[in-house]
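Morning!

This is the sequence you dropped in the shared folder:
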Amino acid sequence: MADKRIKTPDELLKIMKAEAMGDICFTHILDFIKTGMTEIQVAEEIERVLLALGAEGLSFPTICVSGTRTEFPHGEPTDKVIEEGDFVTIDMGAIVDGYCGDMTRTVAMGQITDEQQEVYDIVLRSQKAGLEAVKSGVKCFDVDKVCRDIIAEAGYGQYYIHGTGHGVGTEVHEAPTLNTKSDEVLEEYMPVTIEPGIYIPETFGVRIEDLAIVTDFGIINTTKSEKELIIL
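The structure's back. Tokens below.
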């Protein structure tokens, strides 16, 4: 029986199209988002744009959290107003022909603190290292460890409160799982997310997530959106 974690070229194309919609939507949102808007207003615009681009649905309810609420990895959008100095974390996904996209970006509004910049840079370094570690034959545990070690060595280990990633297909969360308990091994043509984060209680959080296709030479990264910190 075929391993459902390994996708066919046709399945991978659908996932890539879904992720491309996310990239187009993110570019739009960078122009759209302004201080004074609420999280719900931004989330609703994301969903409107994804559906306008041809998505048949959403991989999951769109996450848009800002300010101290970025400490919640799966926070739901509220009527909180986005303010100067806030981080805003957006996690979204479109469904194309039954297959899910999934991407996360954290952007800043106006001025930020040195601490915000430092934490963002650590997460970005961790995320890039995780992507570099992905290759067929590599243990999921080891990819998680690469990301986690960078965050821990920077002194933020206790604030990395979830796994590094997961498979994606007709469900947005599928096997394999990349975390501290996983005994799975990556194989060619598995789509997996790499999404480390730091979440400091009552302060702020940062997550950056790409959706990568495992190959025997590394990855094909289906997420093209800018990852260096964008300050709007």
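Headline: The chain has four helices and 13 strands.

More detail when I'm at my desk.
O.
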